Structure prediction request, 262 residues.
Amino acid sequence: MPALPWPYLALLSVGYCLALAYGKLAWTAAISIALLLLAGYAVRQRQIPVGRFLGHALFLVLALALALHWMPGFFNGRAIPTHRLTDDAAPFAMYLNQDKPLIGFWLLLACPWIVGRRPFGLSILATALGLTLSAILALGGAIVLGMIHWAPKWPDHAWLWIANNLLLVTVVEEALFRGYIQGSLSRRFSHLAHGDNLALLLASLLFGLVHAGAGWQWVLLSGLAGIGYGLAYRFGGLGAAIATHFGLNLLHFALFTYPMLA
Prediction:
C-alpha cells in the first residue's frame, strides 16, 4: 500500500481542531467513527474480496449521510454570522463542519493512493492551467449568467474563511471527487482508449449534481469548474486539484460578488 499522506492529514487535522473550537461533539458521533473504522478495515483487508466491495459501499453511504448532516452527534459551530459581504450580494453565513471532514480523514487513511503523487514542477504547471481554465469556465460563466459581477473586497473574517475553505472544504471535496471517484474510475476504465477523459467528465458531472440544491446554474458552473479541477488532478495529483479548487474559490470570494447577487 502507498505511504500515508501525512501532509494532507496534518492540514485536515488543523482544520478539524478549528472546527472543534467553534462547535462540539456528542457521544453519538462515535457511531459514525465506528462505522468508518469498520469500512476502513473492510477496504484494507485482503482475505475477502467481497468484503472490500462492501467496505466501499458502506463508506459511500456514510459519506452521503455525513455530507448531508444526517449523522447524529455533530454540532457544527457558526463561525461567521449571516450578513451581506456587499450591498447587492445574497446573505452569507459560514459553519465549521465536524462531520464532513471525516470523509477526508477516511479517504486519506484507507485509500492513500488517491494522492496521485507527481513531480513538484508538474503539479505547479497543472495548478496554473487548471485554475486558468476553471476561472474562465466557472467565473466567466457566472458573469454571463448574471450571477456575479466585479466586487473586490477583503472583509475582517477573510482569514477565517480561508482556513475553513482550504483546510476543510477543498481538501475533503477534492479527496472525494477527484482522488476517490475520478481516480477509481480511471482505474476501472484503464482498458478504454479515452478512459481517463471519461473518468474526469463523470467525476465533474457528479460534482455538479451535488450542487443541485442551489439551482441548475450552480450545477452547470460547478461541473465546468470540476473539469479544471479534474485536469489538475490528472496531471498534478491531489495537491494540484486542491490548490486549483481553493484558488478559484478565493478569486470568487475576494474579487467578485459572494456568494452571488441577491
